[in-house]
Amino acid sequence: MLYIRNEGDAKAALTQGEHLAFIKQCEVYIGQLKAKKSLIAAQPLIREGCILKKTASGWNNTPIDPTKETHVGYYHILADNIDEAIEIAKQNPEFSFVPSATIEVRPLKTKEVETNFEYPT
Questions:
Q1: What are phi and psi of 83, to 5 degrees?
Q2: What is the C-alpha separation between 81 and 106, in angstroms, rounded?
Q3: Fewer CB in 10 Å around end: N or C, the chain?
Q4: Whole-prediction pTM value?
Q5: What is the DSSP letter of 47?
Q6: Contact at 8 Å (CB) between 106 and 76?
Q7: pLDDT value at 121 more than 80
Q8: pLDDT per residue over 47-83, tens digit each?
């Protein structure tokens, strides 16, 4: 799983033309991943929502602060190992358009060893 993060609304600094170029590069990137059969899903995230946390006294519901670093999208990819996933992440257009962009690369757990439960894919 590739989790895309930006500081604040980093794309607000892009001109309309730059933003369109970014979107088109994302479409190319997605097309390349699909052609290699390496993409399961990809989705940008809207900068609204909340962080929900259960506490001893109830629930905390904190709005996401769009001025801080936040998740802005994800790519669910197929890779043979973490090194291949990192190489795929390095090609993401986010790095070309947003200097503050980071991508968290994480393997997904597909099965529980103790119970043999398999998570849906």
A1: -65, -40
A2: 10
A3: C
A4: 0.87
A5: S
A6: no
A7: no
A8: 889 999 999 999 999 999 888 888 999 999 999 999 9
Maximal C-alpha separation, the chain: 52
Beta pairing class for 2-6 and 58-63: unpaired
Structure tokens at 14: 């892009």
What token pair was written down for 28?
């190319």
Nearest to 5 by CA among 51, 66, 57: 66
Residue where the block lists tokens 């479409």: 27
Instruction: Identify the DSSP state of 118.
Output: B
Let me know: does 8 contact 68? Beta carbons within 8 Å.
yes
Residues forming beta bridges with residue 87, ordered by sequence position: none
- Looking only at the bridges linking them, the beta strands covering 39-44 and 70-77 are antiparallel
Instruction: Provide the 3-class DSSP secondary structure of residue 30.
Output: helix
Residues 6+ apart with CB under 8 A from 85: 2, 77, 79, 105, 107
Residue 113: both structure tokens together: 């060893």
CA–CA dist 79, 97 (Å, integer):
25
